[in-house]
Prior knowledge:
- The protein is built from ten helices and no strands.
- It is an all-alpha fold.
Amino acid sequence: MIAVQFLGVIIIGYLLGSIPFGVIIGKLVRGIDVREYGSGSMGMTNVMRTVGAKAGLIVLFADLLKGSGAVALAWLIFYSAPDSTVYWGQMAGGAAAVIGHSWPVYIGFRGGRGISTAFGAIMVISWPIGLICLATFLLMVAIFRYISLGSILAAIALVIAMAIFVVYDLEPFAYLAFTFVVAPIVIFRHRANIKRLLSKTEPKIGQRVKVK
Length: 212
């Protein structure tokens, strides 16, 4: 029974994470596939640059809900199980949502970078860690003006902060396992951004992308 529940959590989390809100909003507002412009992502940043700030904020909120919703659903499914099972269920649901956002089944597995969905998940899993990641992101963006750099460093901060919390028994090991899955995905999905950062061609915050 537990194995079936875990499988269900993973499938639901993946399908929820796969909902391409960025592509949907781009089609509705501008009649475009945002993945064909800018960074090629369907995430909040590229939507803001190609469609507009309001559209980007809508996508941000929707992508956050995908991660938080997957973790919340996992808790509902395992709420009567031992705590350790609940923790691993949340880890599985949240990680599956990030994978779904990054490689969505509905649109040919071309998705986003995963950072918003991951943040939504971590805020339900451990809001103190989530706030640490948010502070890292905001500080780096304020200093360097690159959203991609802030996202990458926030992913690294996620692993480091969670490892410290686990060592001091403030969080369960299952949550650290979540970071081991999610942070590499986020960084890997930013590989094109990393190349542009190194070549100094990465757009800074506030720059728009021309759409025909």
